[in-house]
Specification:
The structure is a single chain. The protein contains three helices and four strands; from the N terminus they run ααββββα. By secondary structure, it is of the alpha+beta class. It folds into two domains: 81 residues, no CATH class; 44 residues, no CATH class. The strands form two sheets. A two-stranded antiparallel ribbon has the order 1-4. The relative contact order is 0.17.
């Protein structure tokens, strides 16, 4: 019973957001979602061509050494001061050279995809406006 109550309480904010969503806006947002993604990819590719490289997030561990109080060692709890080390993940952007010919081909492909999606998105947006007329 407690588990059901916790689940219900956890889903309550989601239910409130869904209840407050304007169906017209949700429909229009869905109509242009893919177009927005392709626009972002076009921008990213253009920037890569300008720079001559892309950046990729890379996880690098950052080690630190310090003193710990109450260190667990071998399943037992040690009381006192001890030396401990810690490796924390750190995400850094690593530059990687691009193949300009491949990036240019990708950019042209994305632009063609965008042209097709723009037509489809406009048709879907028109259907949304017809289905959910603007209030006022």
């Amino acid at each position: 019973m407690v588990r059901i109550m916790r689940t219900a309480l956890a889903l309550l904010p989601l239910a409130l957001v869904v209840a407050c969503t304007d169906p017209r806006e949700a429909c229009l947002s869905n109509a242009v979602e893919e177009l927005s993604t392709v626009d972002a990819l076009i921008l990213e590719t253009e920037q890569a061509l300008e720079r001559g490289y892309r950046t990729y997030p890379t996880n690098t561990g950052r080690a630190s050494v310090g003193y710990c109080i109450g260190n667990r060692s071998g399943g037992t709890v040690a009381i006192g001061l001890s030396l401990c080390n810690d490796v924390r993940p750190q995400i850094v952007d690593k530059p990687v050279a691009i193949d300009r010919v491949e990036e240019q081909r990708k950019l042209e492909d994305l632009r063609q995809t965008r042209a097709r999606l723009a037509l489809r998105s406009e048709a879907e947006a028109s259907a949304c406006r017809a289905r959910f007329p603007a209030a006022g």
